[in-house]
Structures are given as structure tokens and as C-alpha cells.
Amino acid sequence: MAVYRNIFHTAAYTGSMRVEKNPDEKKNFHYPRGTAAVRLAAVLSASVLRGVLLRFCIFGGGAKGVSVGGGSTPVSLLLSGDDQAGKQTEIERQKEDTAVKKIALTYDDGPDPVYTEELLAVLEAENVRATFFLLGQEIAGQEEIVKKMYDAGHILGNHTYSHVDLLGLSEWEALEQLRKTNEVIAACTGEYPQYFRPPFGRCSESINKQISMLMIMWPLDTRDWECQDTGVIVENIVQNVKENDIILMHDGYETTVEATRQVIPILKERGYTFVTVEELMCP
Fold it and tell me: Does residue 267 share a domain with residue 147?
């Protein structure tokens, strides 16, 4: 059996994460320390701890009082059950008011020899970082564009070598699609991708268990490749976007570039912050 040292065990992320264990993983594959899944587990653990501490500070381990103020004579506010519920509701409201509403723009099938650079200029002007899932066969001759994407802080993911349905390939052929793409991306950036998006969203569990890139799906599909209409793309996003959404687009169309130019300021005005998929999972 071949050893694929630059493609790793996969879980799928679409806003929630599924984690599976492979009993042969340590024997057959190399795993980098500090992967996205590990960082995400640490973040979740910290979040749980903060929640426990918050409840302890509010309710004192079951007591009905909350101490406020400073100095040697703190003021004790005794709260009824209704008052406690009201206090908790107010705290949650304040948290919602101050919380950052994050969304991630993602682009598949690049790099495009014309429109990817135009898109990068739009993102730079808006100070937005995105995530690009690249096709290995499109990188030859466009290595400088790939380096430019990486240097600008965008996340580069694996979208297979030739945009094939992985379920139509043998296991070896599917793994080769991923391995070759990781190699050409790493040759440009010096770093192997940690994220993967299968064409058509189709990938077998068997492949998942042999790689450890995190598979990124999408709750909001603009279908920009189909309509190629700027207004339709913008309306689709604005009408359907929700907090923590991963938005699927493609950087090979002029209409997508223009839709990106228009939709970013609209969503910023509505309080959304644009992040990479890595930042969406690991704040």
C-alpha cells in the first residue's frame, strides 16, 4: 500500500464537524502537529470552560446572589428566579450584540488565467481574505498567481487535479488526484494544504479515512457557473446568507468577480465579517 505523506485523514466541516478514528492511521500515515482539527478541539474546550465560569460567576454555584462593585463593601443583589432568568436573557442579548457575525467566501476551480487576478484585486481593496480550492491541472504556468494568493493570506485548498467525480475512480486513482494537487500547491507555497473540497461534494468514506485534510462543504451555493448573472448571484447571497455560512463560488467568471465586488460592502453594512474557513472554525 502506498504511503501518502501529504494527504491526511479527513473529517467534513459544514458548520458542524464529524470526527472519525482510523485504527491504522498511525501506522500508515504522517500527521502534522497543530492541524485544524486539533486547534478546533482546543477552541471548543476553551468555549465550554468559559461557559462554565460564566454560569458560576452569575449564579454562584446555585446561590441566588450576584456580587457587584469593588472595594471592601461589595453590594449583594439578591435575585428571584424570574430576575435570574431576566439577567441571563440580558447577558445573552449583550453577547449577541457584540458577537462577530462571520461568513466565508470560497472559490473553486482556479486559478483562472484572467479572472483570478481581478478577484484578488477586489478582495485586497476590501481587505477580505477568502479560501480557494485549486485544481492541480490549472496551476501549471500560473504559479505566480498561486504564490500571490498565498502571500495575501488567502487559504489554498485541494479540489483534485482534474475536477473528477472521486466516486467514479478507483481508490488509488482518487488518492493520486489529491496527492498530485497537494504536490503542485506545495511547490508554489512551501506548504501542503490542510483543506479539501471534493468536486460535486462526492467522496467515499474509504478515502476519508486515509487522508487528514479537513473536507469543506458549503451551505450556500450561488450556482454562479450556471447563471453567470451578477444580479442573480448577488441576490442569491443577500437573500439567503446566514451567520457562519460558507459561500460557494468560482473564480473563472467575470460575473462572479463583479458579484463579489458588489456583495462585500452590502454584507459588511449588515454586520458580517469575512473570514477564511480556517478562521471560521478556529477563531
Answer: yes
Which residue in 9, 108, 224, 251 is the catalytic one?
Answer: 108
pLDDT digits (tens, 9 = 90+) for 191-214: 999 999 999 999 999 998 899 899
* Residues 195 and 261 grouped into a single domain: yes
Q: Cα angle vertex 141, ends 174, 225, to 5°?
A: 60
Q: Do 219 and 142 have their domain in common?
A: yes
* 3-class DSSP assignment, residue 196: strand
Among the listed residues 251, 272, 278, 280, the one whose alpha carbon sits nearest the alpha carbon of residue 123: 251
| 151 is a catalytic site residue | no
Active site residue 159: no
Residue 1 lies in a domain: no
**Omega before residue 111 within 30° of 0, cis:** yes
What does the pLDDT look like over 119-142, one tens digit per residue? 999 999 999 999 999 999 999 999
Most confident of 15-19, 34-38, 57-61, 223-227: 223-227
My answer on whether 70 and 130 are in the same domain is no
Distance of CA 3 to the CA centre of its chain: 27
CA 42 to chain centre: 16
**Of these residues, 112, 154, 250, 251, which one is catalytic?**
250
56 and 167 together in one domain: no
Find the range with the poorest average confidence among 5-9, 25-29, 111-115, 241-245. Answer: 25-29
Hey, what's the cell of 188? 508554489
Q: In terms of domains, do 75 and 199 share one?
A: no
Identify the domain containing residue 122 by its residue range.
101-281
Q: Are 199 and 276 found together in one domain?
A: yes
Q: Are residues 47 and 176 in the same domain?
A: no
* CB-facing half-sphere around the CA of 225: CA atoms within 13 A: 11
